[in-house]
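User: Fold this one for me? It's AraC family transcriptional regulator.
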Amino acid sequence: MMQEIVNIFNQSHFQNYDLQLTHAGFSVNLADHTYGPTIRNEYLIHIVLKGHGTFQTTTQQWQLGPSDGFLTPPNMPIAYHAAHQQPWQYLFFGFDGKLAAKYLHQIGIDKDRLVFHLQRPTYFKKLIQKCLSFQHKGLADEFMMQSIIYELLSGLARYHQPLIKAPTTTILHDSTKQALAYLGQHFKEPININQLCQAIGFERVYLSKLFKTDTGLTPYNYLNHLRVEYAVDLLSMTKMSVEEIAHEIGFKNVDVFIRSFKKIFHITPKQFQKRETRSQSVTNAQSQTASEQFNFQLRV
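Assistant: Here's what I get for AraC family transcriptional regulator.
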């Protein structure tokens, strides 16, 4: 479980621009809270303020602590896990745009350089607190948000350093590698595990056994996690209906989607969507109260 304060930005005047901030906020994780496996549809930067946790891709994982950061790029399966003792607290901001990948690559953060260290994380904390004051009141606010995403990237360029900590490399069976690649590419299509096995050329029982050995999940459960975690973004950040989202992420039957979602999050997609809608109106007072409540005070 985690506590989170987030503001989601729907910038009607800045569609299809070079850069666009999509959401930003702070998160406090309880011990052993896990997010994922999931795939994002935008770039998302996390910066650890306190505590520790693990960030992992399908083949590597990093133990991270205060002032460390990590990027989750679009269309890459990832997961992260809060430590049992001193679980992490972090800020985050998501963005996309025609030049997002180019700018990140120039900064030195990309799909081949996912983790980094920051010399001055308080710079980002102040900007995210400013993001939470965004009131969705028109063009002036949208110009403010456009300026903030450039300030955030400017800070990354100025203060980031390569992370010295070496990752732990996971050795996967070839069948698991192929299955992960296929599921990551096709999870939004109405595929099933028999189709997966046919596509990569492995017998189902054999694949399932090795896949679970490598990942801790069966291929079916892994596919459901990808779809349901992806649905969280759609429920939070779009006005799509539950039925539209179910079909968007590969479920042929909306009831199967609802059961899968409830099994993981213990509430229905509709209940989650209503809760997110209520929480998206963030005021200045709420922002300050939340910051005090979460005690996001960085000691550097």
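One thing worth pointing out: The radius of gyration is 19 Å.
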